[in-house]
Structures are given as C-alpha cells and as structure tokens.
C-alpha cells in the first residue's frame, strides 16, 4: 500500500511586505507590518514582542555584547582564540 501524501502546509503571507508572517521581523520594515499582523495573524507574534520591538530599548543589545566578550573559539588542533576580532 502506498504511503499517504501529507497535506500541503498553509502559509500566511504578509499583506505588507509579502514575506511569510513568521519572517516579517526580518523583512525590510517590520514597523509597517505590525498593524497587519495584529489584524490578520494575532497568533504569530505575541503582543509583547510586537509592542517591545517598537520601544527602542537597547539594554539587551549591550548585554549580548558583554556576553560575547568572554567567548573563546577552539580550533581543530586544540588552540583557542578568546574575545572578538
């Protein structure tokens, strides 16, 4: 007996940028997509994400940079390189 073919995935494309709704935040203008996402795809992005991305709060960006300062990279031969270049 032949295996059943899976149903095709239904993709919701943004009416503003044309990307799949899950990828709007990586698109050219997430700010313009937000009203459309709230109206047509409320489950894709939690309200907290949509609201916080427009706040302009850069505290988390600094924290990431601080954490990266302590990262070291080891090569195949066992030598390590610490910090950012």
Automatic annotation (TrEMBL):
What Gene Ontology biological process does one annotation of this record name?
formation of translation preinitiation complex
Among InterPro entries, the record links this protein to: DENR/SUI1_TIF, DENR_N
All copies of the DENR N-terminal domain together span 11-45
State the Gene Ontology terms under molecular function: mRNA binding
Q: Which PANTHER family match?
A: DENSITY-REGULATED PROTEIN, DENSITY-REGULATED PROTEIN HOMOLOG
Q: What is this protein called?
A: DENR N-terminal domain-containing protein
